[in-house]
Amino acid sequence: MPKHEPERRCIISGEREGRDALVRLALSPDGEVLPDIGARAPGRGAWVKPDRALVAEAEAKGKLKGALQRAFKGDVRRVPEGMADRIEAGLKRAALDRLGLELRAGNLLLGSDRIAAAVDSGEAALVLHAADAAPDGVRKLAQRLHSAGGKAKAIALPTGRDELSLALGQANVVHAALRDRQAALRVESAVGRWRAYLGLHDGIGIEGGEPPAGLEL
Known about the structure:
The protein is built from seven helices and ten strands.
């Protein structure tokens, strides 16, 4: 973790991480605890690891409510049920919103011809696949990435083409790519937190487009 990045402690596990590696929970004006995915809400916050199983277990055993009461020094009036689901929905929304922003900014490439051109030229910084992308299509793009000899990364999104297409306002979005390096980093960060929360650690940061043996993107 960079020295300049402030550390925060997960209220469930007690582990310390940089704030960008954790998920913030905040109090609404009426004392309800809600996910604050962008970490922008005013006031005191509580932090948890992006680990759905950890949050769900703490919630089921009643440990999450107690940890939140301690973190907010007794100011909590209500902890909604299904916090694990709420965090997952927030991370998904943040990632899909980020993709939408990059599309409107002209950074997200859609369409097989545009993606293939970026990959073949070695300009692609990040390639994305819908969860239900055909294995043959994923494999062909991986081979092209490898042949191009670039340092592009390939990431499988935790959602299928229907939801991805709806979020982007486009028809049948199965693959996407980014050439701009900063845009790619923004997307990788948002999608990476979503994947990490779901326990999908494999498939992040695959350079050159070739997944490890046995890994299905």
